[in-house]
Specification:
Blueprint lengths: L1 E9 L8 H9 L2 E9 L4 E9 L1 H13 L3 E8 L1
Antiparallel strand pairs: 1-3, 1-4, 2-3
Helix pairs in contact: 1-2
Amino acid sequence: MQKIKVELTFPPRLKNEAVICNLCKKFNVTVNILEASFSTETGWAIIIIEGTEIEVTKALEFLKAKDVEVKDTQRLI
């Protein structure tokens, strides 16, 4: 199992889409939302994604494909 902490920045067009929920369902990962803030302009969240290395990698690729900015990747024990 792999556990990664990332900071996400969401574009305005995704404000009504259940991106994190879909991420969990599609890739069989667990997400812990540590902090988040959303407005009509943008949104950000600091989350921990946990799952197999392959599923976590696919989940990060999914976010990037949706134009979510993914930064500060930190592997956790």
